[in-house]
Design a protein that fits this description.
65 residues, alpha+beta, Factor Xa Inhibitor, elongated
């Protein structure tokens, strides 16, 4: 049986922390930034954790399971 390949799109978008948590960049930070307040733009710079429901699928795509 061949080796599992990691999903290229997922490995570019998701980072695994030292404790094993999956982190990704937040949405709404690409365009129309002049409409958004500075406070909102600063908060969107922080990475957020992948939701519990999606983490199982993301781990499978990354070959962690």
């Amino acid at each position: 049986m061949p080796k599992m390949k990691t999903h290229s799109g997922t490995k570019k978008r998701v980072k695994v922390t030292g404790s094993g948590k999956l982190m990704h960049e937040q949405i709404n930070k690409r365009h129309r930034l002049e409409v958004k307040t500075s406070k909102r733009s600063r908060k969107l710079q922080q990475d957020s954790a992948v939701s519990a429901g999606d983490s199982k699928n993301v781990k499978r795509l990354l070959g962690m399971r």
